[in-house]
Amino acid sequence: MSRRPTIADIARTAGVSKGAVSYALNGRPGVSDATRERILAIAAELGFVPNRAARSLSVSSAEAVGIALRRSARTLGIEPYFMELISGIEATLSSHSLGLTLQIVGTVEEELDVYRRWWAERRVDGVLLCDLGAEDRRLESVAKLRLPAVAVGGPIDHAPIPSVWHDDAEPCREVLEYLYALGHRRIARVAGLPRLLHTTVRDAAFGEAAKRLELEAFESLHSDYSGEQGARLTRRLLTSRSRPTALVYDNDVMAVSGLGVAHELGLSVPDQLSIIAWDDSPLCRLTHPSLTAFSRDIPAYGSRAAELLLSLMAGERAPDEEPPSIQSPAAQLSPRGSTGPASG
Amino acid sequence: MSRRPTIADIARTAGVSKGAVSYALNGRPGVSDATRERILAIAAELGFVPNRAARSLSVSSAEAVGIALRRSARTLGIEPYFMELISGIEATLSSHSLGLTLQIVGTVEEELDVYRRWWAERRVDGVLLCDLGAEDRRLESVAKLRLPAVAVGGPIDHAPIPSVWHDDAEPCREVLEYLYALGHRRIARVAGLPRLLHTTVRDAAFGEAAKRLELEAFESLHSDYSGEQGARLTRRLLTSRSRPTALVYDNDVMAVSGLGVAHELGLSVPDQLSIIAWDDSPLCRLTHPSLTAFSRDIPAYGSRAAELLLSLMAGERAPDEEPPSIQSPAAQLSPRGSTGPASG
DNA sequence: CTGAAAGCGCTTACAG
DNA sequence: CTGAAAGCGCTTACAG
Q: Between the CA of residue B61 and those of A122, A127, B64, what are the distances in Å?
């Protein structure tokens, strides 16, 4: 038949009720094994696939998860992070036959509107929140909607929703100690957006470690993660009177553009300048020298977030139980060609 | 009320039937203006948003568009193209209150299964096909499903579905003439996947133009678009006995990694080697020198594809009418620092 | 212009 | 173990 087959079609050819078909299809008691077999065979033969809308309407669930991204097309394109994260999320979702609904928004207000609309429409059963802010209105808002949600990032203690996060402070200490061991005493950092949670975590950790190591100089300049700002800030740092011998970047895009500026200024990397990128992506191996970077498995991170959201949606915990945040492994430093001993 | 309001709630408080509410909400005749106003006011006050599943079930439409990507997390992350395309698509869809459902697949078979399932479930009303192949089974398959579909890429003449495409041959001629004018006579190209349609279009156009210009040497080496292969093929080309003085890359990722190889081999760009990238993205401005590249507005391209799909979904043309493909502006060459006169 | 009813395709108590 | 029925929340002919 060219019309999509329904349970009514199956019921008719099997000579049973629609209820029986539903029980058989969903592996529930209520039909004998023989009948079940027969029904399943007919369903398979007809190529039956349940209509999502009908199913959703009955069980009041959308069988989909939503993700709203507050970033420009430009940023989304250039930052490998998002697509890798989405890949991981999507892998988990599709293995549970859940759909992924994606929307790009311009402002927090728009983003909150999207969540409210999704909730009201029942378009999604849960959402994943990205780009956590140091102060983040979204946490309370989605919690108030009672829309299952997981924050991707953290740590966010005493928050109304759980998060999947990883420690950002330890890598900060690690990288400064590594550079210190290589003899670097004047180090600077081209940091990310100051409003983001992980930026503040790194700000604090870098500050403390720099003080503890008694570095000659350490400063963090904040940026919007773009290559343009990465280049501009790098130029500023490298043309100052006592220029740093090592630069740490909060993402890989800026590190690549920083390397370009070093070339432009005739500084050889790593002889005269060491460069370290934060988010490792294939980008870091594209350059010459290739970039020393902090690596972590972003798709796995996304998968873990999706799994946590699934468990929330399944309502596996008591209403007043502490939301079970999950800590992921911290990023690992992968030394490559862009770091070496300080030339003094 | 904490329960999501339904049209029944509105009907009750307005003292009318559910049908009247539906007419009023959808701007259809069947209610007086006064009643309509009253209903709309109550709906607004209750914060009414229609339940998607119920609406979908009634009107047999999912109010969503699907896109299945057959690329690895790695590729999706590093290629700015996809996220930019998706941004453009999404912008158009959300302005029409349509959702975007995204799925990542491993093989063509999986991809075709996804389309079949989406169709059977009525999860989407239409799909967008990316990464068109020179031979592409998907065109026939989705056409057979009678699932509205638009191919992103082309030209695909006499195809069962329309496409949004742009001319790739003219830019090929243009770039060779440009390099010729700069004095280059030995040129090579690091091309993309040979199975993709636009690769074959470029293969042919480059071949013809090279012959017409009577270049001393022109060759195309095919790759998988990855930085690794870009580097490997560049190394091979630059270490051959008569090395080319200019390299053209089919994407920007490989061009960046080719530039890295030039640095590695101590070749100065553009003095000893000119480099041109195909897909312009912020990546091309990250390097030093910045890369001469072919630019086009990818988000706009995505928007156009989405709009064409919407018109198809609206069923605006007769069943036997020729599918109305849309040609987009060809890519424009943006000369930057990576190209210059041939040194001989 | 308006109301009551049927229907979209599922799921799920409720009787037999 | 099975069947008949109601219900999810909308839309849409069909009568008045």
A: 15, 23, 8
